[in-house]
Specification:
single chain, 131 residues, alpha+beta, S-adenosylmethionine decarboxylase, 3 helices, 41% strand, globular
Length: 131
């Protein structure tokens, strides 16, 4: 059984607060991101907190995609762990556009390989205002 996977840890800043507070829109966005990456969704759940913010998780055959939002700060944290032929960087682009983020920071963690965990900055983004 193959154990290697790619784990993207993404932070999105300057996001649209209305999107960040809307569980239905976020779930649809997560579904679009998973499809763009070539992932297969097994189950989906979102939860709006009483104060502010939403958390959502897609359970994937290839692992998971999750989001936690802080609308009052225009911030979202997204965690996308995949194995197999998925291309999580495509999901990142969907999330970036869908959240209307002003900037993003991405950390890529290669996991499960024979050399152990390897951490590296995310791929270069052609938009110069994004990290």
């Amino acid at each position: 059984m193959e154990t290697t996977g790619r784990h993207l840890l993404c932070e999105y800043h300057g996001c649209d607060a209305q999107i960040l507070g809307d569980p239905a829109r976020l779930e649809a966005l997560l579904q679009q991101a998973a499809a763009a990456a070539g992932a297969t969704v097994v189950h989906s759940v979102t939860h709006r907190f009483a104060a502010l913010g939403v958390s959502g998780v897609l359970l994937l055959e290839e692992s998971h995609l999750s989001i936690h939002t802080w609308p009052e700060r225009g911030y979202a944290a997204v965690d996308f762990y995949t194995c197999g032929a998925c291309q999580p960087q495509r999901a990142h682009q969907v999330m970036l556009d869908g959240l209307r983020a002003e900037r993003a920071e991405v950390l890529v963690v290669d996991r499960g390989g024979p050399e152990g965990i390897r951490v590296r900055p995310g791929a270069q983004n052609p938009n110069p205002i994004l990290k």
